[in-house]
Amino acid sequence: MFVISIISFSIQDNLGDPLREMLGQTVSEAERQEMRDEMGLNDPFLVQYVRFVGKAVQGDLGTSYFFKEPALDVIMKKLPATLELVVGASFIIILLSVPLGVYSAIKPHSTFTKIIMGVSIIGISIPVFLTAILLIYLFAIELGMLPSYGRGDLVHVWGYWETGFLSKDGLLHLILPCVSLASIMLPLFIRLIRAEMVEALHTEYVKFAWAKGLRKYRIWFVHALKNTMLPVVTVGGVQIGTMVAYTILTESVFQWPGMGFMFLEAVNRVDTPLIVAYLIVVGAIFVVTNTIVDLIYGLIDPTVNLIGGKK
Amino acid sequence: MKKGVALLAGAILAAGMSLSAQAATVKMAYDADPVSLDPHEQLSGGTLQYSHMVFDPLVRWTKDLGMEGRLAESWERIDDRTIRFSLRQGVKFHSGNVMTSADVKWTWDRLLTSPDFKAIFGPFEALNVVDEHTVDLVTKEPFPLVLNAATYIFPMDSKFYSGDDGKGQDKGLLKKHGDTFASRNESGTGPFVVSSREQGVRVDFDRFADYWDKKSPGNVDKLILTPIKEGPTRVAALLSGDVDFIAPVPPTDHDRINKNDKTELVTMAGTRIITLQMNQERVEAFKNPKVRQAIVYAVNNEAIAKKIMRGFATPAAQQGPKGYAGYDTALQPRYDLNKAKQLMKEAGFEDGFSITMMAPNNRYVNDAKIAEAVANMLTKINIKVDLKTMPKAQYWPEFDARAADMMMIGWHSDTEDSANFTEFLTACPNKDTGWGQYNSGNYCNPDVDKLVQDAASETDAAKRAAMLQQVEKTLYDEAAFVPLHWQNLAWGARTNVKLEAVVNVMNFPYLGDLVVE
C-alpha cells in the first residue's frame, strides 16, 4: 500500500495542471500562480507527500477538486455501482463457463464444442468497448428491448448502497453492461476449465473411478471437476482485480456511475486527490481478493492444509 | 438485411413512441453536467448553459445576434460612458424574494471577485443603483460592448445568499474547489428550479411556478439532464428513445440521426475558430512573412473541413466568424500549392526545414486528426513536421511553455466580438495588460494592437467595424497564423422536441422557451 501511495502520488505532477480545468480561458497567468500557491501545488514534492501521508493515516485522502467532497467518500458512493457490475458479470461467467467448459472437455469432437471454441476465440479478441457498442446498437437501438445507459431505478439498501438488483428496471439496466464485461473473461474461463478438465479426465484416479463403475455424473462433477478448481480459483482471484480495471471501459461506454468511470473523468479533469485515492482503493481491493483466494485454497484442496500441519 | 432490421426497429420504436406522445417531461443528455450550481465559479459553456436555465441575464442574444431585454426591460445611453437599465418589476426569485436593483448590485460586486469573470468587466468603472428598479453601468472610457458584458450579469438572490451557512462560512462565499453554500444551492429568477442533483450522474429541473415570463411558449414541466460522456452512447440513447435531445453530436453520427425518421439533427455554424500558431521565437524562418504565407497557402483547410470534419465546420481565413463586427467577406481560404512552393523559393527555403508541432487530442472536434493532416500537407513544401498529440490536461502546460514550433489553439470570444480574438491570440504578448496571453506564435504588429485598442473605445459601430476589419485584413496579409475552420454546432432531438427554435450560435439553448409536442 505504501508503494502504491508513493507511485500514485508521484505521477500526479505529470498528469497536467488541475487549474486549467477549473478556470476559464481568460484568467491571467499571475492569478493562476496565486491559486496554485493557495492550494499548495507549488510546494516541493516531499512537503506535499508528507502532508498527504500525514492526513492519509488519519483516513483523509484529500478532497476532490471536482466533487468538493472527501475523495474517499466520493469513491465509497461509487463503489456499490461498480461492485454490482462485477458481481453481475461474475455470476454470468460462473453460470456459463462451468457447464460449457465441462461439456467441451467431455465431448471434444461435437459440433457444439466447435461452436463454443470458435465463439470464445472471437469473444477473447474483440475489445470490450466494441462488444459494448455492438450490444447497445443491437439491443437498445435496433430491437429497443434494453436501455442504453445508466443504472435505472434503484432501491436503497444501506448507507451509500443503492442496488439495481431489486427492481425490474434496475435489472434491465444491468444486463448489457454485465454481459459486455463478462464477454472478455468468459472465453478465458471456458478454455481454462476445458483444458484442466481434459487433463483430469486422463488421470489415473478418473480411470480407476470408471473401472469401479461409478455413475458418469459423479465422475465428471465430483472427481474430475473438483480437482480442476484450484487453478480456476487462482486465475479467478487475479481476474476479479483485472475486471475492476475493465469496468473503466464498460462504465464509460454505458455511462455507468461507478468508480471506473469516475476515475476516467478524474484523469481528464486532473482531479489528483481523487486519482490517488482511487489507485489506493483499487490496490486494496487487489490485496484483499488475493488474500481471500489464498484462504479458499484450503477449502478446495486439502493438501494445502496438510502442509501447515496434520489435523 | 440491415434495412429490414432498421424497418422492424422503426416499427417497434413507433409503437413505443405513441405511448409517450404527450410528455411534458424532457430528458436531455450533454457531454457533461454543470460543475457547480454557483454561476460565478467557472466561466465555461456548461456554466452559461446552466445559468440560462436557472437564472436570467439582464439582456440576452437573440438568434440573429441582436439583443433582447430579459431582467432589464429597457436601456438607454445617457452619456458616452453610461447606460441606464430599467429593471423588470415584480420578478420573483425561486426563494420567493422579489428582485430589485440591490440584487443586481450584489451580483455585480460578486462578479468582480471572480477570477474567471472579472476580466469581462475590466473596462467598467461601476454599477450604480439609481432607484429600486434602475441601475447605471458606467465605463472608464466610452465603451462599445456594454450590452455584450450585460449578458453575463445574471442577478442572484442577495437575501438568499446572505448570512451564515451553519459551517462558519458566508452563504455568498465564492470559492473554487470549495464546498460552499452557493455551489450546492441556487435561487435565481430563471424558468427552472434545480430539484435534485447528483453530480456527474443527473440533475433534475422543475419548471418555476412563479416564472416572470408568462409569454414564454415553453411547456416543459420537468427536465432531466444526464451527462453521457461517450459520443456513441449519447447517440444510442437518443436513437433508442431513452433521451429526447443530445448535444454535442459527433460528426460521424450525423447521418444516422438524419436518416432515422424519429430524430432530427439541428446544426449551426459555430463561432469557435481553430488555428495553428507559428512560433517566431523558436523558428527563425517564421519571422519571414513569405514562409508564413507559404504555410497558409499549403494548408488545404477546405479539404480538412470537408473530409475530416465531414462538412461539420466552416473553413476560415480570419478569426471572427460571419456576423461579428470585424468579419470581412473578401477574406477567403486560399489553398494554392504552387503559390506556396513559389513563396518558399522566394524566401530561400526551397529545400525546407524541420519543425515540431503539438496539438491536443481531446479538446476540439477531431483535433489530432486535423494536426496530422496539416503535418502531411506541409511535407509538400518540404517542411518536415514532428507531431506530438496529447490529452488536453497535458497539452495546456506545454502550450503555456510554448513547447513546440507550431501549436494548435481554438478560441471562442467571450464577448461575441471580433476584438477579443486579437487581444488573446494575435496581439503582442504583454504580461502587464494580459494581451497575447495565448499568442504562442509571438506574432507582433504594433499597428494591429493600436487598432484594437482604439476600437475598444469607439462607440460608432460602423467606424469600429471598419477598424476591426482592417485588423483581420492585416493578419490575413501577413499570415499571422494558420486559420483552419470554425467548428459547427450540432444538436440531435426527437422530432417532437422543437429544439431548432431555442438554440443559438453561442451554444446556450434557451430551454425555458422549449416547446414539446
Output the structural class of chain B. alpha+beta
**Count of DSSP H/I helices of chain B:** 15
Task: Quickly count the helices of chain A.
Answer: 13
Biggest interface, chains and residue tallies:
A-B, 49 and 56 residues
Assembly of the depicted chains:
heterodimer
**Average pLDDT rating of chain B:** 88
Residue stretches of chain A low in confidence (pLDDT < 50, at least 5 long) are: none
**Radius of gyration of chain A over alpha carbons?**
24 Å
The ordered string of helix (H) and strand (E) elements of chain A is HHHHHHHEEHHHHHH
For the biggest sheet of chain B, the summary is: 11 strands, mixed
Question: What percent of residues of chain B adopt helix (DSSP H or I)?
Answer: 25-40%
Largest sheet of chain A: 2 strands, antiparallel
Strand count of chain A: 2
Q: How far do the termini of chain A sit from each other?
A: 35 Å
Q: Percent range for helical residues of chain A? A: over 70%
Radius of gyration of chain B: 24 Å
- CATH topology of the largest domain in chain B, what is it called? Dipeptide-binding Protein, domain 3
Proportion in β-strands of chain A: under 5%
Full CATH superfamily name of the largest domain in chain B: Dipeptide-binding Protein, Domain 3
What is shown here, in short?
With 311 residues, chain A is an all-alpha fold.
Secondary-structure topology with pairs:
The complex is a heterodimer of chains A (311) and B (517).
Chain A: H1 2-11, H2 18-22, H3 29-39, H4 45-56, H5 71-106, H6 111-125, H7 128-142, E1 155-158, E2 161-163, H8 168-201, H9 204-212, H10 216-254, H11 259-269, H12 272-300, H13 302-307
Helix pairs in contact in A: 1-12, 5-6, 5-8, 5-10, 5-12, 6-8, 7-8, 7-10, 8-10, 9-10, 10-11, 10-12, 11-12
Chain B: H1 2-19, E1 25-30, H2 45-54, E2 59-61, E3 67-69, E4 72-79, E5 82-87, H3 101-111, E6 124-131, E7 134-139, H4 146-150, H5 181-184, E8 192-198, E9 202-207, E10 222-227, H6 231-239, E11 245-246, H7 254-259, E12 263-278, H8 289-298, H9 301-308, E13 313-315, H10 337-346, E14 353-360, H11 367-379, E15 383-390, H12 392-400, E16 406-411, H13 419-426, H14 446-455, H15 461-477, E17 482-494
Parallel strand pairs in B: 1-10, 1-11, 14-15, 14-16
Antiparallel strand pairs in B: 2-3, 4-5, 5-7, 6-7, 8-9, 9-10, 11-17, 12-16, 12-17, 13-17
